[in-house]
Amino acid sequence: MGVQERRRREREARERAILEAAKEVFLEKGFDLATVEEIAERAELGKGTVYSYFRGKEEIALALLSEGVEELFRQVEKVLDEGGDPVEVLRNLGRTFFGYYRENRAFFRILVFGRRKRPELVIPEEFLRPQIERGRRCMERFALLIRRGMEEGRFRRGDPWKMGLLCWVLLGGLLFHCEDEIHREIMGLDLGDLEEEALEFCLRGLGA
Fold first, then answer.
1. What is the pLDDT of residue 119?
2. 83/208: higher pLDDT
């Protein structure tokens, strides 16, 4: 291995260590209370080293947001690409979504649900616009899946776009309520108790 290649790998390894440490610190402390010093300590790096990669915790959060959105879209698109019976594809999409949430709670808790509370975490337009467009393409493919289900007699007739959006709102809203302490106390249930019911509720709403 050449010197340049070794340096590149070392730099990538340090950046990965910073991001993984930030996930842990954000999840434990919350974004507001987390500090670059704590992230550096968790990554076993000097604070100056962290600042040589990122200008602050806001930039680290944006890097995690970018990474998280990319991986979620990749998993959703993979399920859509596999095709099959529309009912089973929808179930697989829901399970993929919930599974991703369980494995990446810091991403959802800090960077998705908590983002509106943090005006200082400004998302640049050059990052936001491509993600909006990609998300819309995913929703369009989801609407096509529902339309196919209608044509095959698996779903009732209706507006595929609106029906797809309502499914999305139901599943996303469930995660929001499960992340909120007050709502969890009111419900007396957690996500594991509700996710399969939520999927079946969506399917019944579609007429499956």
1. 56
2. 83
pTM as predicted: 0.79
185 burial type by CB count under 10 A (0-12 exposed, 13-18 middle, 19+ buried): exposed
**What is the C-alpha separation between 126 and 165, in angstroms, rounded?**
25
The angle at the Cα of 22, spanning 17 to 24, to the nearest 5 degrees, equals: 100
The packing angle between helices 3-29 and 36-43, to 10°, is 120
Contact of 163 with 206, CB cutoff 8 Å: yes
Domain ranges of the chain: 1-54, 58-206
Which stretches of the chain are DSSP H helices?
3-29, 36-43, 47-53, 57-82, 86-103, 105-106, 125-151, 160-179, 181-187, 191-206
Q: Residues of the chain with pLDDT > 70: what percent?
A: 92
**CA–CA dist 178, 191 (Å, integer):** 6
Classify domain 1-54 at the CATH topology level: Arc Repressor Mutant, subunit A (1.10.10)
Q: What is the pLDDT of residues 80-106, one digit of tens each?
A: 999 899 999 999 999 999 999 888 877
Q: Which CATH superfamily is domain 58-206 in?
A: Tetracycline Repressor, domain 2 (1.10.357.10)
